[in-house]
Amino acid sequence: MFEHKHAPQSLPISTPLAERWSPYGLSDKHITEEDILALFEAARWAPSSYNEQPWRFILSRNTPASGTHDKALACLLESNQVWAANAPLLVFGCTVGTLAQSGKPNKAAQHDLGLAVANLTFEAQARGLSVHQIIGIVPDLVRALYALPETVEPLTAFAIGYAQTHANLPEHLKARDASPRTRRPLAETVFSDTWGNPALL
Length: 201
Prior knowledge:
The protein has 201 residues and is α+β, with helices and mostly antiparallel strands. It has a single domain (22-180), classed as NADH Oxidase (3-Layer(aba) Sandwich). 31% of the residues lie in helices and 20% in strands. The chain is built from seven helices and seven strands. It is globular, with a radius of gyration of 18 Å.
């Protein structure tokens, strides 16, 4: 774990939140099946609108026995393949876009996928693992290679592994891993009364 990546907080927050970050450098160290199962069990218990649970995941293990990792990597933009190739797990996050009962569009589907991935991310953090979100995917290729139904949208991906300083990373990614974590202040994020008027001082 990189000690310098602890979040600088204006007020103390829980340790998993403060220590979570998204490394590019990931070890290829094996992740146990128990840990993998626990991550998706955490995702399973995320809240969702009408309890639709519109998230679906496609999991790829980076092992010779699986033989599927190259297929998953091909669905990432080349800039992401460079660093994600080392990750022991690659996952695609998909949404079911229609409500089961009515067949109408589920406007909360993407929001709820985010909640499920957040649950997974903090379960990973509690187990010493890191999760790096990837928006740079090729959705049509995901759809074709994994035979997704028309009602399912491949939205994002994420790599899971143990954070480490990785000698094979390009220099610009090493620099990003070494940089401090930053966020805009709450006064620029939480408003009251009118847009831009800080609600929290």
